[in-house]
């Protein structure tokens, strides 16, 4: 992909993010932080590429291990982030009016 | 959606079909290209391999699912479905990546995911809701570190990331992205570690002021930017030292930036680091040309930035002044000498119980003190008993109450308070004039009228609750000695209608429940 198309996606996504986040109710700001934290671990894609490549090139072996550590860190975040968000959201209940 | 994804994967497996579907895709694609800005023609990756449009589409779907995940949070009813979308998006991104790369060692990768997943899952299950700010800070540091590791791996093995040009050098644009990616990642990491230590109480929440810190910080930041520029234009041979210097300096600046920031500003810091972790992911997304990472990075980046803005506005402070740090340090020192003894009334749990039973409406204002004392369950019990007596009970939450955005809402939700009884500042502020009782528990600065009247006060201009308009005020506080984080004395303590309930917040609520 050339740089300009990537940049276009990025700029558009910033605008989408702007409007979507303003629509989040303030009561859910903590779950918002937890879930953004979980999805930013999509960086795992980069870690997987490094880990999967293996020792093809000179720095491959080191890169592979760095990638594997990256996969561990990102997995902590993915599982932890989504699980804790789920746990928080389950608590937001509306009680029956008496 | 699931079906098309399966097809996408199948087409990756069978190259011949991938080409035909790619052509079909191209036939109708120009119509959408303008709107979606999706580069539909299989553009050449930097490495010269054609990008499979189905793979690109799978990453795009993952990105869209992440948008839906955030969109779901616009109301508590849709929020859980949104979270599921987020999980699905992540699954798609991970599976697509594994599917499209020849994997040298699947067991190792599976093991890494299992270890990380288990740690994350168990932590998420066990963590107390009051410790949520620390947890989020810790998670941010992991994203930052992961970004740094990916950046270093890409630098060491650029071929695997497809960022080499014809002569075997790393592309100039990729070098800029790499430099920025590791820098932002490293700042996120060290900054979050400091934020975690401060929030967790391993480190004093008081600002630590280094001499000449502004000069040092600006110098280091300038050096990082300069080195990144040099790294981009210099020949690959011998750039190792530059790259590692960028990484080292970035770890240092993250540390330097956060240590002078005091405890009260932590909500802003946590949101800011949230934003940084997003930009780090986006920078790596640029390096890899990966849509899911770019969309996510932009979403998270803007989310954190907006939260920081909301927090700053709720404290009437500029973002720059928060980052410059030191809030609370000067104010506290000047206040110590000027303290005078003024008359105030002390109330007991029985008084509070009696008054609130007689009241028609009670507004409860929780603050960080409630979180520290873990008083949310006792408080909810008190609220329930009052409601049984026919009293209208409402909770009022200031945007900066607690140590992170929405912290109080989560704690009240944990204690089973229905979310339609919880109100934001602007929605409830006009109701204090009709309220019989304002019950302040563990909050201080957010009810300080000095913010409206005293131009010299450090918190002047901050939007606050009009508690002084309520007929009676109960102020739960541990002792008369301490003042809020801003270090400002509070006029409300000495008002005629105020009764101070000096005790631990949890104990006081329990005693009131007993008395009711």
UniProtKB/TrEMBL annotation, chain A:
Domain of life of the native organism? Bacteria
User: What general EC class does the enzyme of this chain belong to?
Assistant: translocase
Question: What is the annotated signal peptide range for this record?
Answer: none
Enzyme Commission code: 7.1.1.1
Chief location of this protein within or outside the cell: membrane
Q: Where are the transmembrane segments?
A: 6-25, 32-53, 65-85
Domain NAD(P) transhydrogenase alpha subunit C-terminal: start-end pairs: 7-94
Which keywords does UniProt give here? Answer: Cell inner membrane, Cell membrane, Membrane, NAD, NADP, Translocase, Transmembrane, Transmembrane helix
- According to its record, how does it sit in the membrane? Multi-pass membrane protein
The cellular location(s) given in this protein's UniProt record come to:
Cell inner membrane
Q: Which reaction does it catalyse?
A: NAD(+) + NADPH + H(+)(in) = NADH + NADP(+) + H(+)(out)
**What InterPro entries does this protein map onto?**
NADP_transhyd_a_C
**What residue ranges carry the coiled-coil annotation?**
none
Q: What role is this protein assigned?
A: The transhydrogenation between NADH and NADP is coupled to respiration and ATP hydrolysis and functions as a proton pump across the membrane.
The molecule here is called proton-translocating NAD(P)(+) transhydrogenase
């Amino acid at each position: 992909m050339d740089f300009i198309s990537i940049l276009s996606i990025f700029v558009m996504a910033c605008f989408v993010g702007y409007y979507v986040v303003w629509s989040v109710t303030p009561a859910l700001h903590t779950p918002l932080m937890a879930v953004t934290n979980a999805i930013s671990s999509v960086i795992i894609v980069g870690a997987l590429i490094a880990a999967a490549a293996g020792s093809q090139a000179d720095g491959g072996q080191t890169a592979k291990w760095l990638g594997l550590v990256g996969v561990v860190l990102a997995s902590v975040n993915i599982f932890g982030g989504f699980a804790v968000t789920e746990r928080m959201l389950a608590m937001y209940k509306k009680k029956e009016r008496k | 959606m699931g079906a098309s994804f399966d097809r996408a994967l199948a087409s990756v497996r069978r190259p011949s079909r991938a080409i035909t579907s790619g052509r079909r895709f191209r036939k109708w694609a120009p119509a959408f290209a303008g709107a979606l800005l999706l580069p539909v023609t299989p553009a050449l990756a930097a490495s010269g391999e054609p990008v499979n449009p189905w793979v690109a589409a799978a990453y795009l779907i993952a990105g869209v699912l992440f948008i839906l995940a955030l969109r779901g949070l616009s109301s508590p009813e849709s929020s859980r479905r949104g979270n599921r979308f987020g999980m699905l998006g992540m699954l798609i991104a991970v599976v697509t990546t594994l599917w499209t790369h020849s994997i040298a060692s699947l067991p190792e990768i599976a093991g890494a995911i299992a270890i990380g997943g288990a740690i994350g899952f168990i932590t998420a299950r066990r963590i107390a809701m009051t410790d949520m700010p620390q947890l989020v800070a810790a998670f941010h540091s992991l994203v930052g570190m992961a970004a740094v590791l990916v950046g270093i791996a890409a630098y060491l093995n650029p071929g695997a990331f497809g960022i080499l040009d014809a002569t075997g050098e790393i592309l100039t644009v990729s070098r800029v992205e790499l430099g920025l990616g590791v820098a932002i990642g490293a700042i996120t990491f060290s900054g979050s570690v400091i934020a975690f230590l401060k929030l967790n109480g391993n480190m004093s929440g008081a600002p630590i002021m280094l001499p000449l810190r502004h000069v040092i910080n600006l110098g280091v930041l300038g050096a990082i930017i300069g080195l990144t520029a040099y790294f981009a234009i210099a020949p690959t041979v011998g750039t190792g030292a530059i790259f590692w210097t960028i990484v080292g300096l970035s770890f240092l600046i993250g540390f330097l930036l956060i240590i002078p920031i005091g405890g009260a500003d932590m909500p802003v810091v946590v949101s800011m680091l949230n934003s940084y972790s997003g930009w780090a992911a986006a920078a790596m997304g640029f390096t890899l040309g990966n849509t899911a990472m770019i969309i996510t990075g932009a979403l998270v980046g803007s989310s954190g930035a907006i939260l920081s803005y909301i927090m700053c506005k709720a404290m009437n402070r500029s973002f720059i002044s928060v980052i410059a740090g030191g809030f609370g340090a000067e104010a506290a020192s000047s206040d110590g000498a000027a303290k005078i003894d003024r008359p105030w009334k002390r109330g007991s749990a029985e008084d509070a119980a009696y008054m609130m039973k007689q009241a028609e409406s009670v507004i409860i204002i929780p603050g960080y003190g409630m979180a520290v004392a873990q008083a949310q369950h006792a408080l909810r019990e008190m609220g329930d008993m009052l409601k049984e007596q026919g009293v209208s009970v409402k909770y009022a939450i200031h945007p900066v109450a607690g140590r992170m955005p929405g912290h109080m809402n989560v704690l009240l939700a944990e204690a089973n308070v229905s979310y339609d009884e919880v109100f934001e500042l602007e929605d409830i502020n006009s109701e204090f004039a009709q309220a019989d009782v304002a019950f302040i528990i563990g909050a201080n600065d957010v009810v300080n009228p000095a913010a409206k009247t005293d131009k010299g006060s450090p918190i002047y201009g901050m939007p606050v609750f009009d508690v002084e308009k309520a007929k009676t005020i109960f102020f739960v506080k541990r002792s008369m000695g301490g003042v809020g984080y801003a270090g400002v004395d509070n006029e409300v303590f000495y008002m005629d209608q105020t009764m101070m309930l000096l005790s631990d917040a949890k104990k006081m609520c329990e005693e009131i429940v007993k008395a009711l």
